[in-house]
Specification:
Strand order of the largest sheet of chain B: 2-3-4-5-6-7
Order of helices and strands of chain B: HEEEHHEEEHEHEE
Distance between the termini of chain A: 36 Å
Number of helices of chain B: 5
Largest sheet of chain A: 5 strands, mixed
Number of strands of chain A: 8
Oligomer: heterodimer
CATH class of chain A: Alpha Beta
Protein name (chain B): N-acetyltransferase domain-containing protein
CATH architecture of chain A: 3-Layer(aba) Sandwich
Helix content of chain B: 10-25%
Order of helices and strands of chain A: HHEHEHEEEHEHEEH
Largest sheet of chain B: 6 strands, mixed
Organism (chain B): Zingiber officinale (Ginger)
Structural class of chain A: alpha+beta
Number of strands of chain B: 9
GO molecular function (chain B): N-acetyltransferase activity
Keywords (chain B): Acyltransferase, Transferase
InterPro entries (chain B): Acyl_CoA_acyltransferase, NSI-like
Structural class of chain B: alpha+beta
Number of helices of chain A: 7
């Protein structure tokens, strides 16, 4: 066993050194879900082979190389492997939106307030949404256009992402909307190649996230938050 | 090469590592870099929404408490923070000047980062992905060693010896990833007993000191601390990270709390 590295490492180390078990699990998941969907997307544009396909080099790269795909494959989002499909949601009067376009910040703040989150400064909220890129999923009530469920993620687009602000309007909680946004957000993140998706969960919703495939403290990794008071205090004790 | 794994519980001794960048007055005018002032602003912190208010699940009932976030967050911190900060300075017996410099400019290329990752023993990641991760990070902080041989002022030798980065939504939250310090800089230098008011001064070494493990923690601590100060100065109110079990104490010593109010960090981990 080599000497342990000297660096002070955060858990992101675990992403490049994903434990064998987690790496294997992620690879299997990809094989089963992501790659199959991408294949069907490719097939709708013609076969992958023979050699002359519209966007690949003369020698087609194997499916494993993500760089050979367009950055946002067409059908990746609309997969039938979600618990509640887009169609089902439509029939219930909801539409799933995969980016912040059209999201009314004031209306979102209303939902935040109704669930007990702090209302956010609208300018800052707009800024945050603008920087989330495609890692925003929300559900729009067709009658009225208001957001009724929402989730967003921040990250570096290649290795890590953290999910924030998962909300469902209290009047619609328990009807599968939270799961709907989360499943799609995770799928979208996975589609861009991000394999390290994290979040912070209050004790009573740990079970909800577990059902979605999240594990608490995997391999002993702990979520930590800076206490400003403690930070200032430790700076003064030098 | 010692076999300290850098993750042992930090004792109070490790605090005597690093210096902030403060100077109470402009001493040592020969220093070419800006040294910023530390000022207590004296502002009163208003009651603000805390981290857990925003984390409380937004999709379970019984969450009707109204919380209002103030329009701006006051920071009990300095008003300006220099982008480049000299942390340490030492003059060798041959006259070579070595400085350790922190920078929040993020001026680093993927090759250097990959080389640093190699040094600490991380598995290789594709260069393009490293470059993308740097580009998409909200803040990339670095430690560089700058060596200047006597009489050769133009030919500074600058080497990347530490890095940390943070992703963010540019408004509310930031998450710190990838904190790295070159292992070979953990076995050098050594005694620092500097308070906030003292400038960087020549290092002292002596038989009584043994900082082999401490220095790496000292440099890592300084790196993360300056990174945090930069984030706070940019008004990012919520600073988070996910820590390997072995380094939880290191971050606790910086002011982080694990599982605040029982809130757990969770990772996507497919099972089927």
């Amino acid at each position: 066993m080599p000497a342990a590295p000297m660096a002070i490492q955060t858990a992101e180390v675990r992403a490049p050194i994903l434990t064998l078990h987690r790496t294997k699990a992620i690879k299997e998941f990809d094989k089963k879900h992501i790659l199959r969907r991408v294949t069907s997307a490719m097939q709708s544009h013609g076969p992958l082979l023979p050699l002359r396909s519209p966007w690949s080099s003369p020698i087609p790269l194997p499916l494993r190389h993500r760089t050979s795909f367009p950055t946002k494959p067409l059908c990746l989002a609309a997969s039938s492997s979600f618990t509640v499909s887009d169609g089902e949601l439509e029939s219930r009067g909801f539409r799933v939106r995969r980016n912040p376009g059209g999201l009314d910040v004031a209306a979102l703040n209303e939902v935040f307030a109704r669930v007990g989150f702090p209302r956010r400064d609208p300018e800052r909220l707009r800024r945050a949404l603008g920087h989330a890129g495609e890692a925003v999923v929300w559900i729009e009530e067709l009658a009225g256009g208001k957001p009724v469920a929402f989730a967003r993620a921040t990250g570096d687009g290649v290795f890590n992402a953290v999910v924030w602000d998962v909300v469902v309007d209290p009047s619609l909680q328990g009807t599968g909307l939270g799961k709907a946004v989360m499943e799609r957000l995770v799928a979208d993140l996975r589609a861009t190649g991000v394999s390290n998706i994290a979040l912070y969960a209050e004790p009573r919703v740990v079970g909800f996230y577990r059902l979605l495939g999240f594990a608490a403290d995997p391999d002993g990794v702990r979520g930590m938050v800076l206490s400003r008071k403690n930070f200032q205090k430790q700076r003064k004790t030098r | 090469m010692h076999d300290d794994d850098g993750g042992d519980a930090c004792s109070a001794d490790s605090h005597r590592g690093m210096l902030g960048a403060g100077a109470s007055s402009g001493r040592s005018p020969s220093l070419p870099y800006a040294v910023e002032h530390t000022k207590r602003s004296g502002k009163v912190l208003p009651l603000r929404a805390s981290f857990w208010d925003s984390i409380k699940s937004g999709f379970l009932n019984n969450n009707t408490t109204q919380v209002v976030e103030p329009a701006s967050n006051f920071i009990e911190e300095e008003d300006t923070l220099a982008q480049e900060i000299i942390l340490l300075e030492s003059t060798q017996s041959d006259g070579t000047l070595e400085q350790i410099m922190f920078s929040s400019a993020g001026d680093v290329d993927a090759y250097d980062v990959q080389a640093l990752c190699d040094k600490v023993g991380w598995p290789r990641r594709p260069l393009t992905k490293i470059a993308a991760s740097l580009k998409n990070s909200y803040l990339v902080a670095t430690l560089h060693s700058i060596c200047r041989a006597p009489g050769l002022e133009e030919n500074d030798e600058k080497k990347l010896i530490g890095m940390a980065r943070a992703t963010s939504d540019h408004a509310f939250n930031a998450t710190i990833w990838d904190v790295l310090v070159d292992p070979s800089y953990q076995a050098r230098f050594i005694c620092l007993n500097l308070s906030d008011e003292e400038l960087v001064s020549p290092l002292l070494t002596g038989p009584g000191y043994d900082f082999l493990g401490d220095m790496g923690r000292g440099l890592g601590k300084a790196l993360v601390e300056q990174l945090i100060r930069t984030l706070l100065q940019r008004d990012i109110g919520n600073i988070t990270l996910f820590a390997d079990n072995k380094v939880v104490d290191f971050y606790k010593n910086l002011g982080f709390e694990a599982d605040p109010e029982g809130i757990k960090g969770m990772f996507w981990y497919p099972r089927y």
